[in-house]
Amino acid sequence: MNKKQGLLLINLGTPNAATPDSIKRYLTEFLLDRHVVDLPKLFWYPILKYLVIPKRVPYIIHHYQKIWINGSSPLLHYSQLLCDKLQLHLPNIQCELAMTYGEPNIQSALNKLQSCSKITVLPLFPQYSTTTTLAVLDKLKQVIATDKIINSIDYIRDYADHPSYINALYLQIKQAFQCQGEPEVLILSYHGIPERYIYKRKDDYIQRCEITTQLIIEKCRTNNINIPIQMAYQSKFGKGKWVTPSTSDTLQTLAKSGVNNVHVICPGFSVDCIETIYEIDEENREIFLNAGGKSFYYIPTLNDTDLQINLIMTLINQTQPLILNNLY
């Protein structure tokens, strides 16, 4: 039976195996995208091939091997669980998953949705950025430019300030406090971007993160959560100047100033991945404890929880999507 509407969830991407060759292929595709690294290709490619990849692959392969779940990366595992659960809740909408880089790719996912008269695309990045969301939209435009079967594709730009998103994060925080106790400080850790992208691309990502942070603080204060809440940025790559403050520096400073107990949540990640499970819950935990902190708790992302399911159902029902063809 052909379904009238389709929903395409798109996440960043992941190696399809925790092996050197798979990680090399993924990193090469990811880091050659001009949205991610905007250096001239003739300059950047030799550096990537002969310096970055040989150094990066051995460094992260053991991290991936430690966090692999049932034969796949956490990002793919939780993204697929989310897609499958949404399908159960939305029997009249065909739900598919794609990755910007790697598999399943956008073209194959759209092929599965060819019988749909309308497709809503939801990039799983709550805060719009040229490094993530725009990369998705440009790939979509390339595909539909040569695929006349798909009649209508629209997309949700982001949901950084959507009440259902803020409420879902608040409830995730509240649940963690109820189970773990209230910390002295709550850190909201977002993925960082190079500072030059803000000015060169007029990227409003930082503004979107700040809006999310402010709304979370307001929601917490309204509900009598009055502990200090700070935002910071993680996952710096390369030698250029990135947005600050950094999550690791913030945690180290807090510990050295006498803060013993922190919780960290990553509002910019829709599902857990190497940046949350390893970088935050292992590396940054160790940084905080080694600097004198006593207790560190990572609050998981929304993953495939009912909070996330309800959020996405609300987004596709209430948010006014944008027509892809009118993007530029």
> Given the helix and strand composition, which structural class is it?
alpha/beta
CATH class descriptor of the largest domain: Alpha Beta
Net shape: globular
Q: What gyration radius follows from the Cα positions, in whole Å?
A: 20 Å
Ends apart, CA distance between termini: 35 Å
Low-confidence stretches: none
Assembly annotation? single chain
The main sheet orders its strands as 2-1-3-4-9
The third-level CATH topology of the largest domain is: Rossmann fold
Strand content: 15-25%
Structure description:
- With 328 residues, the chain is of the alpha/beta class.
- It folds into 2 domains: 5-159 and 307-326, 3-Layer(aba) Sandwich (Rossmann fold); 163-299, Rossmann fold (3-Layer(aba) Sandwich).
- 48% of the residues lie in helices and 16% in strands.
- The chain has helices at 20-32, 41-67, 74-89, 106-112, 133-145, 163-180, 195-200, 205-222, 247-256, 274-290, 306-318; strands spanning 5-13, 93-101, 118-123, 153-155, 185-191, 229-234, 261-265, 295-299, 322-323.
- The chain has a 5-stranded mixed beta sheet, with helices on both faces. It has a 4-stranded parallel beta sheet with strand order 6-5-7-8, sandwiched between helices.
- The radius of gyration is 20 Å and the shape is globular.
